[in-house]
Amino acid sequence: MKNTEIGAKVQKQLLNSLSLTRDGIGIFDADDILVYTNSVLASMFNQPVALATGMSFDILARHSYLTQTGLKIESSSIEVWLKSAHQLRRSEKFRSFEVDCYDNRWFLVTEHTADDDSILMFCSDITEQKKSTQKLNQLNQQLQLLANVDSLTGVYNRRYFLERSKIELARCIREKKPLSLLMIDLDHFKLVNDNYGHEAGDNVLIHVSNLIRDLLRTYDIFGRLGGEEFAALLPGSTYSNSRGIAERIVSELGESGIMVNSEKIQITTSIGIAEYHNTLGTLEKLIAEADRHLYEAKKEGRNQVKGC
User: Fold this and answer.
1) Which of 31, 82, 148, 201 makes an SS bond possible with 160, Cβ 3.0 to 4.6 Å?
2) pTM across the whole model
């Protein structure tokens, strides 16, 4: 068998192998015309091999952009995107980057620019790795959420409330903005557990946390510190603003009631307020001041707001 025949046979076997791989392989000449492609790379532009071969990179990209098929091009202008792409193509001998397609496939693309300015493009299918990474990220987010929230009520737990509050206090001090803290404690909550059981007590805590959360602003920081004690940090709120919110919590909670074992029971709360000022330079001091006013509210009959 002649060398030319052997070469042709090897070339045919190689091309057959390239057509069967899950990875995309193509060659763009110096004018950016696709002179060779296997089916995977052609599918990245939502084209059959016969049509893709001979098309320019620009035409292939425009087709994907206009039909929103194949390669996902996220840009408000295809012309702007193409200009950026041409600045990057052939900017170095080897270049790697990730792309995704509208059919949810992901590829790691490697471009090798030859001496004649042609580009060998190799696109490795990394869809499964991407899915695994996304699942892992989702799991990490869920674990992070579980670490930050109270498992019963879904509001911030004590640790994360304090962590977030320290950051917010520092920001308000730096920007010279007002900030207030509400310390919230349910009245006679032990009697609920004693008379109706701990499941009823849990339902009361969920009801209370949902009611308070609905009355607060989206950027307020609200958490359960433990037992029947809650706290809310109100950035940008003076004592006067915060008192209005606190009184509304007391009023609406007292009026709402909750069904426990076919019986409607009334739940009340006492709230202590402290507004930040220079003598309360730390979160610990702010909490202690609000706690002092909470004790006053309890001592003077409960179901009320105290502060200064």
Assistant:
1) 148
2) 0.60
Catalytic residue among 111, 228, 275, 289: 228
Nearest to 253 by CA among 191, 197, 172, 186: 186
Could you read off the pLDDT of 182-222 as tens digits, one per residue? 999 999 999 999 999 999 999 999 999 999 999 999 999 99
Residue 38 CB partners (closer than 8 Å, separation 6+): 18, 19, 21, 24, 25, 26, 49
Where do the domains of the chain lie, and which CATH numbers do they carry? Answer: 3-129 (3.30.450.20), 143-307 (3.30.70.270)
- For the purposes of burial, counting CB atoms within 10 Å of the CB of 3, is it exposed (0-12), middle (13-18) or buried (19 or more)? exposed
CA distance 242 to 116: 72
Residue owning tokens 């989206």: 218
Average predicted confidence (pLDDT) for the chain = 90
Is pLDDT above 70 for 8? no
The pairing of strands 269-275 and 305-307 is parallel
Q: Reply yes or no on whether 284 is catalytic.
A: no
Residues 34 and 54: beta-carbon distance below 8 Å: yes
Kindly report, residue by residue over 16-28, the tens digit of the pLDDT.
555 556 789 999 9
Q: Are 274 and 286 in contact (CB under 8 A)?
A: yes
- In angstroms, rounded to a whole number, what is the distance separating the alpha carbons of residues 275 and 297? 16
